[in-house]
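Re: that chain you flagged

S.,

Sorry for the slow reply, it's been a week of failed gels. I finally had a moment to sit down with the sequence you sent. For the record, here it is as I used it:
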Amino acid sequence: MDIVTVPPKYQVVIPRKVRERVRLRPGTRLQVISFDDRIELVPLRPMREMKGFLKGLDSTFQRDEEDRPGTSTRWKGA
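Prediction finished late last night. Pasting the structure tokens below so you have them in one place:
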């Protein structure tokens, strides 16, 4: 786990290991999301970079019955 200090100008340096792991480059846009007491920085990637990002995902699992098309009664005026 890396630790950074927030300076008076609130400009935080992202540690090199983290930048390399998520392939951040100068100019990369980050979405800032706050959840309760934590902050997440999510790199915004062009859609063309998304091609193949789910490669190797095991899609053979069985969905719950309520998630299957035509079987859910959750939203039928219940």
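What I noticed first: The helical segments are 16-21.

Talk soon,
D.
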